[in-house]
Amino acid sequence: QVHLVESGGGLVQAGGSLRLSCAASGSIFSINAMGWYRQAPGKQRELVATITRAGSINYADSVKGRFTISRDNAKNTVYLQMSSLKSEDTAVYYCNADVQEARGYQYTRRWGQGTQVTVSS
């Protein structure tokens, strides 16, 4: 199976920074888009940022100018650099990847288990 593992979450004061990482492993032939989503208690999961293999990037308006998404294709890893953090950023952050497990296979979206980010006021 494909396995995605997030790391880098934690507790930070408002105005601080964190860097999240997510590495994909397992049966992977190719990955197109990778991204970050987040979910606060009682809320639906929402998009934070996405990046294609070629480097096309999309950010949610709420994080634009504060967060930076990047990836290392050789390592099947996506990163999220978060700066100027606000209490509203508190959530579980999930990474995802559109994975092709072998040549000729369909791409399927896979998700990590999530990492908690808590921003204190």
- What percent of the residues sit in helical stretches (DSSP H or I)? under 10%
Content of β-strand: over 45%
Counting DSSP E segments of at least 2 residues, the number of strands comes to: 11
Q: Structural class of the secondary elements?
A: mainly beta
Supply Rg: 14 Å
Shape: elongated
The main sheet comes to: 7 strands, mixed
Helix and strand string, N-terminal first?
EEEEEEEEEEE
Sum up the structure in keywords.
four-stranded antiparallel beta sheet, elongated, 121 residues, 0% helix, 11 strands, seven-stranded mixed beta sheet, single chain, mainly beta
How would you describe what is shown here?
With 121 residues, the chain is mainly beta. Helices cover 0% and strands 57% of the residues. It has no helices and eleven strands. It has strands spanning 3-7, 10-13, 18-25, 30-39, 46-51, 57-59, 67-72, 77-82, 91-100, 107-111, 115-120. Strands 2, 4, 5, 6, 9, 10 and 11 form a seven-stranded mixed β-sheet that branches. Strands 1-3-8-7 form a four-stranded antiparallel β-sheet, with no helix packed on it. It is elongated and about 50 Å long.
What is the secondary structure topology, with strand pairs?
Layout lengths: L2 E5 L2 E4 L4 E8 L4 E10 L6 E6 L5 E3 L7 E6 L4 E6 L8 E10 L6 E5 L3 E6 L1
Parallel strand pairs: 2-11
Antiparallel strand pairs: 1-3, 3-8, 4-5, 4-9, 5-6, 7-8, 9-10, 9-11
